[in-house]
């Protein structure tokens, strides 16, 4: 590779990568999620037995991860919108990114027990 | 500084260890019309798509985060979800409307985002074309299925 052609962006590049990865991930989940919900048109048993897998601990952990992905994408999406429409957005984009990360960490900490309560109760009584 | 679109770059000394064809330096402005640009169809589709991503994003913040709070956080988290729980919520036109709007906005927002991702990484015309056919098929199918389920839901199904 010729020297000096590798783009080394800073925080902005990584937030863009994270926004793209989370967006694609959410899209694939949504596709599956509409299919599993459609089972309510088949029978209560079909729906309930599928939803039962959502309550097992591996899937419960994935729900926490999915929440993390959606919350980051949502908060960072608001930042992108602010950069595009707010006159001072580009100037403060870095501060807004750290605000996004901070709010994300706080909310994910707050969601830890409510989302994982069943798993935590099973593991630690 | 004006951007040259005709192929000559003024004021640049070209030395021998660099490409000597000036067009090697040329980056066409995004809106330049080239031979491959269709002559008709001068619509604002890309601008409208860009705007839609932002408008739908703002609405989705409320719809999706509200959905997560109700389904995963309140009243014991996922454990409470069952057929009866769904039946209880969809008895109300408000929640039916919420879910319907969320389905349409999220699918269209997500599909348009996937279109951008496909355009970025699939370089061959035919690959791009077939990936988009797949994307549109999956999106139309999912939106229609979800809409049908919301409208035809029957709490007394056995
Ligand atoms: C929760 C609220 C949401 C907000 C505020 C939001 C915001 C945004 C914005 C502003 C963009 C455009 C980024 C750009 O042009 O650079 C975007 C892209 C995208 N979004 Fe969302 N979004 C949300 C929810 C979703 C959902 C539910 C999905 C999946 C179904 C999704 C999937 C995508 C994808 C795949 C992209 C394209 C990413 C890329 O081009 O790199 N988003 N989002």
Describe the overall structure:
The complex is a heterodimer of chains A (125) and B (158). Chain A is an all-alpha fold. Chain A has a single domain, classed as Up-down Bundle (3 helical TM bundles of succinate and fumarate reductases). Chain B has a domain of 104 residues: 3 helical TM bundles of succinate and fumarate reductases (Up-down Bundle), CATH 1.20.1300. The chains are: A mainly alpha (125), B mainly alpha (158). At the A-B interface, α1, α2, α3 and α4 of A face α1, α2, α3 and α4 of B.
SSE blueprint and pairings:
The complex is a heterodimer of chains A (125) and B (158).
Chain A: H1 11-37, H2 44-54, H3 57-85, H4 93-124
Helix pairs in contact in A: 1-3, 3-4
Chain B: H1 45-73, H2 83-90, H3 93-121, H4 125-152
Helix pairs in contact in B: 1-3, 3-4
The structure holds protoporphyrin IX containing FE (HEM).
Protoporphyrin IX containing FE sits between chains A (19-20, 23-24, 26-27, 30, 73-74, 77-78, 80-81) and B (53-54, 57, 60-61, 64, 106, 109-110, 113-114, 116-117).
Number of DSSP strand runs of chain B: 0
Taking all Cα atoms into account, the compactness measure Rg of chain B is 25 Å
| Largest pleated sheet of chain B | none
How far apart are the first and last residues' alpha carbons of chain A, in Å? Answer: 56 Å
- Estimated radius of gyration of chain A: 19 Å
* CATH top level assignment of chain A: Mainly Alpha
CATH architecture of the domain at 49-152 in chain B: Up-down Bundle
Family (chain A): Belongs to the cytochrome b560 family.
Protein name (chain A): Succinate dehydrogenase, cytochrome b556 subunit
Subcellular location (chain A): Membrane
Main location (chain A): membrane
